[in-house]
Amino acid sequence: xxxxxxxxxxxxxxxxxxxxxxxxxxxxxxxxxxxxxxxxxxxxxxxxxxxxxxxxxxxxxxxxxxxxxxxxxxxxxxxxxxxxxxxxxxxxxxxxxxxxxxxxxxxxxxxxxxxxxxxxxxxxxx
Length: 126
Fold this sequence. Notes:
It is a single chain. The protein is an alpha+beta fold. It contains two helices and six strands. The chain has a six-stranded mixed β-sheet with strand order 1-2-3-6-4-5, with helices on one face. Helix 1 runs parallel beside helix 2 (85-95).
């Protein structure tokens, strides 16, 4: 069985997809970009500010289900420029300080709304 999960503390989907799907003991969270859920605007200020906003959006969706970053088993990070890796990784490490999940990180040609970073994740229910 699959259940659509949505948090009003994270940006609403801007296309034909769900914020997250709960299925078979897992939560699959769609890629989050640095969109402020209150204003609907992109957070500017570079990779650091954008990564903080992406992490906040992911946290809001996890919390909707009573989960934390400790429940995350896999992430994928999409960067506009791999030169931003070190700064992104510093912010990311704050969210995943203990027992970080498996991760892939790739540079892509372009991201939605020309942002610097997008992160998706998979979490497991306890």
